[in-house]
Amino acid sequence: YYTDYLFCTQKNNLTAVTEFFLLGFQVSQHLRIFLFCLFHMVYCGTICGNLLIIILVSTSKNLHTPMYFFISQLSITDILVITDIVPNMLHIIMNNGGTITFIDCITQFYFLCVSEAFECLLLALMSYDRYVAICNPLHYASIMTSEYCVTLSITCWILEFSIFLIYIIQTAKLNFCGPNIMDYLYCDIVPLLELSCSDTRIFHLGIYVIGIPNILIPTTIIILSYTYIVLSVLRISSSTGRQKAFSTCTSHLTVVSIFYWTMFIVYVIPTRRETVTMNKILSLLFTVFTPLVNPIIYSLRNRDIKKAIQGTFNKRVVW
Length: 319
Known about the structure:
Layout: E1 8-11, E2 14-17, E3 19-22, H1 29-59, H2 66-94, E4 98-101, H3 102-135, H4 140-143, H5 146-172, E5 181-182, H6 189-195, H7 201-234, H8 239-247, H9 250-267, H10 276-300, H11 303-318
Parallel strand pairs: 3-5
Antiparallel strand pairs: 1-2, 3-4
């Protein structure tokens, strides 16, 4: 049945696969329709929620601060991640599987890596911003200037695009000589390496060489920042002051917890005992549902964003 999707050419006595067949969820038609509607609603909700935050931060003067600039960058990342994954996944779900060209597969994997790695750095920058605001409030305005924040953000984007471009170029040189059936929802490094007929030991090593610093360095910054924040807050005599200081960090800590928890269960916890279907579901937590949750957390737990939404709505009503 799937052999019709194997398109190949003969080169150097090897069969080079030029397309992969993504199985998606092999379920009944009724369940596929339900999943299609569910993920379509999640996609639309994620795009609308994150666009709302970007527009509010751009137009509301009260939100022209470093913290909200980083939140808008997080929204841009979430839009990039879910747009990279969901549209093609919806096609796969409705058709009970679908093909993706080798170039498109590598491109999808590249933007997924860059987006998720950038989010790691961005969460570290946000924790550093909270550290400066709480532990060094008198110098906050002079340290976290708008130019400095923009420079940090651009530097992180350029860094991640450059680092993963090298890894992606090497991955694209792998030989894929069949089979071309990928029992997954999108192109990721593990299913790609499983299908390759090249020696992939160096690529598994490359995952650790690139991945560990991208996770370990931001995690260290986050832990150190909040260690100093906790120590500083505990020195505040009044309980009201301590609560107010901690309240500025709760949304960020919630986002950090969700992001690292989902990434941990997808990439770190051994999945040999897990079923293939469970692996797919866990990967959706990381790539689809986390971008949906982030704007909800910041809109529901943030008074400034609530006021900006109310102000924008009131202006529209008056107009």
